[in-house]
Structure formats: C-alpha cells, structure tokens
Amino acid sequence: MRVASKMDYKVVFSALERVCQENISVLCGPSDLPYGTVTKRLVTSMKQIQEHGRALEPMVASFSSIYHHYDFDAQTPGNGYRTLVKVLQSCLLHIVHKGQYIASNYSGAFFRAEHNAAEMEAYCSALCQLRALLYLAQRLIHDNEHGQLYIQQDSDLNRSFVQEYSSMHKACFYGRCLGFQFSPALRPFLQTIIISMVSYGEAYGKQQSGIGTAALSLLTSGKYVIDPELRGAEFERITQNLDMQFWKSFWNVTESDILSGFTRIASNPVQVNFTLTVPPVPLRLPLASDPRLSTTVSPPIAHWGPGPVHMRLVSYDLREGQDSEELLGFSRSDPPPISSRLPWIQEQPRSPWLLIHFHGGGFVAQTSRSHENYLRNWSKVLGVPILSVDYSLSPEAPFPRALEECFYAYCWALNNCQLLGSTAERVCLVGDSAGGNLCITVSMRALTSGIRVPDGIVAAYPATLLTTDASPSRLLTLIDPLLPLGVLAKCLNAYAGSDFQTIQPADRRGSLSALGRDTAMLLSDLTQGVSNWVQSFLDPSRTSGGSPSPRGNHIRRTSTDLAFQNSADSIHYPDGFEPLRSNCPAFVNPTSCPVMRNPFVSPLLAPSSLLRGLPPVHIVASALDALLDDSVMFAKKLRAMEQPVSLTVVEDLPHGFLSLSQICKETQFASDMCVARVREVFLQENTRNALPKDL
C-alpha cells in the first residue's frame, strides 16, 4: 500500500492553500463577474475548505510520524490510521483539481456555475466530516495501548463512536462524492449500486417483491441519477433505519436468474456445477494424533435440531467420482447437469487438492450462487474441485448454526472427497468477510475435536471481531457506501441472535422462488414504473420517505444536537469546530450481547490455546476496508504466538472486492492474489515448518 510521505502531504496541503487563495482572489475580484449568488457560495466553500486544511495539516503530520508502529511489519504498511490519511488525501486532491478548474474557467461561456458550486459544497462537507474522523482517531491513539488498534471493551469511546455514527451527517459521501477514495474504475459501478439500492428502498414494502420490485426500482431511478443530493439523503435514510429484511431482500436480488445469467456469461464455463443436500447423519473421522482411533461428529442441531447441509460443487474439469450415482444421489437438481452425458467430455483423474469455500454476506445474505463468478474462474486456474457451503443464514439461524453446518460440511468432504473428484491430500479453506471468519472458526473446531485441520486458510477481508468496538479503520463505517456501521451492526446482532426468529427455513431458496413468482407481474410493474419515473422528473423534490429538500439534509446545531454533545460519552471537538449533523438520526443497537465475545464468534478474542496449532493463515485485506484492522490485529496475534501467517494489503478497493473481480483490473489483481495464496497452500511441502512469505 502506498501512503503519502511527509513531503507528499506537505505538497498536497500547499496546493490546497494555493488553490483556495487563488479562487478567493478570482471570485472576490471584479464586481462584474457573473453568477452573483453562486459566487458567494463558492467563496464560502473555499474559505471553509481553507480553514479545514489549516487545521488538518498538523494532525496529518502527527499521524504520519507514528502510524508505522501499527503496521503488521515493515514490508506490509497498512492500518486504519494510514487509511484515514489516505482517504483524506484523496478528498484534498479532488478539491485541488476542482478548484484549479474553477479558477481557470469561471469566466468562460460554458462554465456550469451551479454544478461546480454544488460539487465544491459537497466536498467541503466531506472534508468537514473527515476532519471529525481524524479527531476521533486522535482519541483512539490517546486511549489505546501502544500498537493496539482496538479500544478496550465497554469503553466510553466505543459508545461515543456509535453515537457519532447515529448523529453525524453522511449523505455527502453517497451523492457527488460517492466513492472518491476508491479506484476510479469502480466509481461508476458504485454509483449504479447506490442508485439501485435507493430505488429499491423506495419500492420496498409496496406489495411488490423480487423481480417486480427490481423492475419498479429500475424505472424510478431517474431522479437519483440527476439529483446526487437527493440520492445521498435517501441512501443515508435507508442505511440508518431500514430493517434487516430489506438488506436480505436487496442482496438476494443478485441471485435472480437474470443477474446470475450475466455472471455465467462473464466467467469461465465449467463441466460440473450443481447443488448437493447432505442428510444429517453422524460422521466418523480418524483422530489426527492417532488415525487408528476415531471420533464422532454430530450433524448440526442448534436452534431446531438436526437438519441437512446444502453445498455446491464446482469443477472446471469432470473428474473421477463426480458423475457417480452416489454423489448424484445428493443432488438437488433433477437431473443434475453433468457434462459426462456429452461423449466428447473426457473424465480426468481425481485432483490431489480440494478447496472448500464459505461465502460472505454478513452471515445474513447470499449463497454460493452469488459467488460463482470467481469460483468458476478459480476452478479453472487452479485445476481444483471447489465445494462451496450454503450455510443457514441469520437472523433465522444465528450462531452457532452456520458454524455447525460449515464444520459438518468440512468433515463430510474429508470423508467423501473421492466423490468430489479429489484425493484431499491437501485441503484449503477459503472465505471472504463472514466466510473468512468461518474458515478460522471451523479450523478451531477441528483442533478442539482432534481431527485433521486443513492445510491452510485463505481469508479475504475477514471479520475477526464481531462487535462495534472502535478502531481507526472502523471509523470508515461512517462514510463507507458498502459497509455502513448501521448495516454492519444489524448483521452482527442478527448473527449473535439478538434478533432471533425461531423459524426453521423450510426452503433456503425462498427468495429465488419469489423472484420467479413475480415474473408474471413484470409488465404491470413496468407500466407503473414508467408512470412513477415520469412523475419523478415533474416533481424532483418528491421522495419516498418525505425527506427534506437536498440542501436541507444536514444542519450545524439544534437543541437535540446540543443535548447529544453534552452527554457523558460525547466527543469533545476543538473550540469552533463541529461536524455536520444528520436530520434523520439512526438507532444503532450496540453489539453488547455476550455471544459476541465468544472466541468462536470473534476469533481475535480467542485464547492462545484455541489458536495454537492452526494451519498457515493467509489474509488478503484492502487498505480502504473498514475491517482492515481486524486483519492486522489478528495477523499480529498469530505471529506473536509463532503461528504461520501472512498478510497482504491491496490498494484502493472496498470491502467485498472478490465479488467485483471482473469489474476492473484492480479487483482482478486482488482476486489473483487470493489464488496465489491458495496455490501456495497446495504447493508448500511442509506448511508447519516455516512462515509463508509474501509473493
């Protein structure tokens, strides 16, 4: 990860001061300049930006002198403090470039004064909020032990962090400034996602669901394309206050036949791709210490008793055992789509390798189907069969159901590897986000059960601390479009069982069948959608939730804010500074449930006895991910125990970059890094004798 050096940040702040002064001089110069009201707005913005810049430069100097103490090692510069400075620098560079354009073109005939004023106001608001985040980060440094990134449990600062999220204005980060910190190639995609989510949120709950809602959302999205402030205000409202069922519903739209069809077109074709349902029967596995002895592994039983485990087998080549009657007997497809029916397909021998995959989705959404895009490619590149586990989702199936199912699937795969096209001489667990957590905790379960542990773990941006505890990278949840704190807290509480619904999911594909049922409603939805779309242009101030006009989506101080700021846990900002406050405060339920401190939920909190003996752990994180500090601290903990571990930090990508691997070259590079780590697990002769080295 490249981070601004001391000279770099001085150059940036010098350029900011220069461009602010230049704009103020130009705009306050001749009285015959056009755009009177717009001119005043621009001057006000530039003066505020100048003030923020002068206050921020010494703060950045302070961070840059110490943030190397929080890195994993000298070859892996990456932690939340570096990230905050990196995000701030990106914001400043956008302002400098925009300011240079305004100063050079303000008197031009084609200058769009209103547009440029709105752009500068948006970035001024973003800079104000980033300044608040750096003040919070200073508190973290002051309150934490040297080298520690997470604040201690139940501290006042943790409560303040949640309170700040609940009250701070965030809409500016979802409108004109959306995704400024990420790779430029990702910004159009992020804009599409945010517009889709906001439009989906407007249609949500209006007696449509599935593809009907998606169609209506598509046709009501016009106003959010042309009005970034409205989009930002609506997205802030959605992320702060809509319930978990909305998020499950929206994320599951990615599993519709239409969208998954695009995935199949964009990814490699495979010879084997079908789902399995394994019945809940006890398994016998040999003990790792003495294979002559065995132990019994019970099927998943948490919450509603024994139940089947669902999986997906993906293989680029048809391998021996994959077309056996025994395996096809577990298939949920009728008939299973095996390419052996084609006479020109030659069956390959079993692979010595087996990759077992646990998908991400915050423990509440998605399945193996939504991760097919990269799994199909990985199966070809690695030449390995992949078993992806469709574990039960929260809140219907909170901890420990998902862990029990993943552990059972791992044990079943060891016993039945010959059916999967593998001899399982080497087994690697791979997962992203929530799936990365499950890779680690399944390995911990294998250790405590005395059975064979996998030969390695590759975890992409794993969640290793399932709490809302404050860390510098967690501060990004106040501005991150893909992982806001309100959404993160809902997912964590759902997994912990705070919102447990005692319902056994009879059909895990319920969301997909709902999509199918809605196909018949598509034409009527399209008609209604066109009407709403046209109406949105006729009345652009209209929103679904009675949101205020775009310029009224934040305020400086109200009596509510004053009461908030005077609370026992409030953050005390320097005199004369106050972050912008939202006029739709969020209610965030802190992750205070004791289950969150269970080491099989938050492996970062696990004692050494539960981690010693883990296989090599390879973590691939992103510098701009709110969970970066989870990866850094967990890698440090393993290294301190002399456990084999590696950490790779890629740049400029958001949380969830594996699902975006086909969007741009940066995400493809990050996916390739994960593949390289998997290959390292498979090829390394003795994984227990030496620490793995970065490629």
TrEMBL record:
<dbReference type="InterPro" id="IPR013094">
    <property type="entry name" value="AB_hydrolase_3"/>
</dbReference>
<keyword id="KW-0753">Steroid metabolism</keyword>
<keyword id="KW-0472">Membrane</keyword>
<dbReference type="GO" id="GO:0005829">
    <property type="term" value="C:cytosol"/>
</dbReference>
<keyword id="KW-0378">Hydrolase</keyword>
<dbReference type="InterPro" id="IPR029058">
    <property type="entry name" value="AB_hydrolase_fold"/>
</dbReference>
<dbReference type="Pfam" id="PF06350">
    <property type="entry name" value="HSL_N"/>
</dbReference>
<keyword id="KW-0442">Lipid degradation</keyword>
<dbReference type="GO" id="GO:0005811">
    <property type="term" value="C:lipid droplet"/>
</dbReference>
<keyword id="KW-1003">Cell membrane</keyword>
<dbReference type="GO" id="GO:0008203">
    <property type="term" value="P:cholesterol metabolic process"/>
</dbReference>
<feature type="domain" description="Alpha/beta hydrolase fold-3">
    <location>
        <begin position="355"/>
        <end position="500"/>
    </location>
</feature>
<feature type="domain" description="Hormone-sensitive lipase N-terminal">
    <location>
        <begin position="13"/>
        <end position="323"/>
    </location>
</feature>
<comment type="subunit">
    <text>Monomer and homodimer. Interacts with CAVIN1 in the adipocyte cytoplasm. Interacts with PLIN5.</text>
</comment>
<dbReference type="GO" id="GO:0004771">
    <property type="term" value="F:sterol ester esterase activity"/>
</dbReference>
<protein>
    <recommendedName>
        <fullName>Hormone-sensitive lipase</fullName>
        <ecNumber>3.1.1.23</ecNumber>
        <ecNumber>3.1.1.79</ecNumber>
    </recommendedName>
</protein>
<comment type="similarity">
    <text>Belongs to the 'GDXG' lipolytic enzyme family.</text>
</comment>
<dbReference type="GO" id="GO:0019433">
    <property type="term" value="P:triglyceride catabolic process"/>
</dbReference>
<keyword id="KW-0153">Cholesterol metabolism</keyword>
<dbReference type="GO" id="GO:0047372">
    <property type="term" value="F:monoacylglycerol lipase activity"/>
</dbReference>
<comment type="pathway">
    <text>Lipid metabolism.</text>
</comment>
<keyword id="KW-1207">Sterol metabolism</keyword>
<comment type="pathway">
    <text>Glycerolipid metabolism; triacylglycerol degradation.</text>
</comment>
<keyword id="KW-0963">Cytoplasm</keyword>
<dbReference type="InterPro" id="IPR010468">
    <property type="entry name" value="HSL_N"/>
</dbReference>
<feature type="domain" description="Alpha/beta hydrolase fold-3">
    <location>
        <begin position="597"/>
        <end position="658"/>
    </location>
</feature>
<dbReference type="Pfam" id="PF07859">
    <property type="entry name" value="Abhydrolase_3"/>
</dbReference>
<dbReference type="GO" id="GO:0005901">
    <property type="term" value="C:caveola"/>
</dbReference>
<dbReference type="InterPro" id="IPR002168">
    <property type="entry name" value="Lipase_GDXG_HIS_AS"/>
</dbReference>
<keyword id="KW-0551">Lipid droplet</keyword>
<keyword id="KW-0443">Lipid metabolism</keyword>
<dbReference type="GO" id="GO:0004806">
    <property type="term" value="F:triacylglycerol lipase activity"/>
</dbReference>
